[in-house]
Amino acid sequence: MHEPLKTIYTRRAVRKYKNQAVDKKLIDEIIAAGRMAPSAMNRQPWKFYVLTDRKQIESLSAAIAKIAEKYFHLSHGMDSSRTTDMIFYHAPVVIFITAPKDNEWAAIDIGMCSQNMMLAAKSLGLDTCPVGFAKYLAQTDKISQLALPADEELKLAIIIGFGDEEPAVHERKKDNVRWL
Ligand SMILES: Cc1cc2nc3c(=O)[nH]c(=O)nc-3n(C[C@H](O)[C@H](O)[C@H](O)COP(=O)(O)O)c2cc1C
Predict the structure, then answer these.
(1) Pocket of ligand 1, beta carbon within 6 A
(2) Domain residue limits, the chain
(3) Ligand 1 atom 30: the closest Cα is on which residue?
(4) Is residue 36 classed as helix, strand or coil in its secondary structure?
(5) In the predicted model, is pLDDT for residue 177 greater than 90?
(6) What's the rounded Cα separation, in Å, for the pair 137 and 112?
(7) Phi, psi (5° rounding) for residue 94?
(8) Which CATH architecture has domain 3-161?
(9) CA of 129 to the centre of ligand 1 (A)
(10) Average pLDDT value over all residues in the chain
């Protein structure tokens, strides 16, 4: 299989990480790949807030969990018996991605950017998980730690690290194509 396709088919949402830091050069490379995503009207709306301090990550995670816990049962693949961190899963790197509030295409752009980042990470030997719950940080007083400009909002976080599990593939629905 061609390498890019192999990367696409082997990426998983990983929720268990080795206690191993990620070199800044790799993080920079992953962000550079994110920047290469297409964006509506080439606005490149993304901004990246990178956290690598374990204590800070744990404290943000705890604050988010207080709000997000009522939704845990809806989430696919989360399992509280396997981790004490149900938001960032003790990953060594968290990248919050924001976009301007007034950009109607931002959610799609951020999705494209994030997927680029996750595939880049995979091809560099790292694993990731997109964390939508990260947006609840905005409902806590710890949002001030990101010092976001008033016109920006949190869209998603990507956690990155050396995976310590190999999740099975979730079979994909295949009855969703209509050839016209
Ligand atoms: C927009 C988005 C938000 C997500 N948010 C979370 C999250 O907050 N916590 C989590 O554990 N997984 C989250 N996921 C991961 C999905 O649960 C996961 O991608 C899905 O179960 C398919 O598994 P796979 O990525 O291994 O193929 C999110 C995925 C996406 C695309």
Answers:
(1) 12-13, 15, 75-78, 129-133, 156, 167, 170
(2) 3-161
(3) 130
(4) coil
(5) yes
(6) 22
(7) -125, 130
(8) 3-Layer(aba) Sandwich (3.40)
(9) 6
(10) 95
